[in-house]
Amino acid sequence: MIRVLLADDEAMIRAGVRAILSADPDVQVVAEAGDGHEAIELALAHRPDVALLDIRMPRLDGLAAAAELRRVAPGTAVVMLTTFSEDDYIARALADGAAGFLLKSGDPRELIAGVRAVAGGAAYLSPKVAHRLITELRGGRLAHGAAARGRIEALTPREREVLALVGAGLSNAEIAARLHVVEGTVKSYVSAILTRLEVRNRVQAAIIAYEAGLC
């Protein structure tokens, strides 16, 4: 069962998202919050697998809440849920440790897919967000390629192999199947990679993999 915390200051939005998630028998909404402060309190109380955070909320917005959750509840994967698709929101959300970014105007199936992906240790971006990010990466790949290749020199050959698969969007379970190892081993590799690269999450690691030409 994937346990989810939902945070949005609009009750109708929360009801709609809860209805979509409840349609999946493997997903359970364990708590709902109306602002960022409440989201953090409930995350500490319930320890959900995934926190769905609206970006614009009173008292404490979703971006600040994501950064705080990264500190106090690292076991909870954060997915940003918003109506805004501006590049600065995307960049800030990923920098603050978010593992996913979904638009409220997207297909409801994206919501289920996103929750399942981040709960399984992968990252997830809605197609529109992914398109924006890829376009930006293509523009900066040559400029950042040398720096990225320098950063991955600290990795072992096996860690580079795992990083390439992370960059390709595979979950821990999928990487384990590809490499014929147990999922726990993959988690250890990913943790080591994040530490060596000095990044917060899989999305940032995937960007380095792309810039370095691993995928």
UniProtKB/TrEMBL annotation:
Coiled-coil stretches: none
GO biological process assignments: phosphorelay signal transduction system; regulation of DNA-templated transcription
SUPFAM superfamilies (UniProt xref): C-terminal effector domain of the bipartite response regulators (SSF46894), CheY-like (SSF52172)
Gene3D superfamilies reported in the protein's UniProt record: 3.40.50.2300
Domain HTH luxR-type: 148-213
InterPro entries: CheY-like_superfamily, NreC/VraR/RcsB-like_REC, Sig_transdc_resp-reg_C-effctor, Sig_transdc_resp-reg_receiver, Tscrpt_reg_LuxR_C, WalR-like
GO terms assigned for molecular function: DNA binding
Domain of life: Bacteria
Pfam families reported in the protein's UniProt record: GerE (PF00196), Response_reg (PF00072)
Modified residues (4-aspartylphosphate): 54
Protein name per its UniProtKB record: Transcriptional regulatory protein DegU
Name of the gene: degU_5
